[in-house]
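Quick one:
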Amino acid sequence: MSYVDGFVAAVPKSKKAEYIAFAETMAKLILSWGATRVVENWGDDVQPGKVTDFYRAVAAQEDEVIVFSWVEYPDKATREKVQKLMMSDTTMAGMGMPFDGKRLIYGGFSTMISAR
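Output:
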């Protein structure tokens, strides 16, 4: 079964174009290393919750939008290979993130169900 990395970030509204360029570069790299799919989503209907929500999870500011992303891999071993490459590739070293990476939430998930 496939493996997925999921991400939630708060990106300044004014940096949408910069984020898209960053995400496109990242997607090309990650796909070249073995990922099967990269999906980036700009929040346009993310509601505040009464107890918790995406905004609180990433300490989003008034001028920020929630971005929800995921990367699919054929298996966890490929994901681990890609993560090692991300930490060692020289292209990655020079890339700045157009958002506060300290507030990025991410994690790896084993796929239980995949329907199309």
